[in-house]
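Q: How would the structure tokens look for this protein?
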Amino acid sequence: MPAKARAKLRWIIGFMETRKDWGNTPYFSPLVGYAGIGEIKFKAQNKQYRPLGCYGPGIYEFTLLIGSEEKGDKFKPLSAPETAVKRRKLILQDARYTDDYY
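A: Here is the predicted structure in token form.
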């Protein structure tokens, strides 16, 4: 991810940390068809970024599971939602697979 996109993602995460309900922001929505997975949505340098994540493993934590982009209503990589589901199961079973980012 280019530096400008990373900076925008950091800003969005900081903004969302101040909100109790992420659903009331333009930057987040649950991923339809993938229970427990949400997408952070933003545009930078003419690309639609869609990092996928989930709540947990701890209280008041959101874990980024995979970085992805969206082009033509398709994820890049195409397997991003399935990968996110697998990683969610893994971190909910064993938090050792997580690390603090922020």
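The helical segments are 3-17, 80-93.

The chain is about 30% helix and 25% strand.

Upvote if useful.
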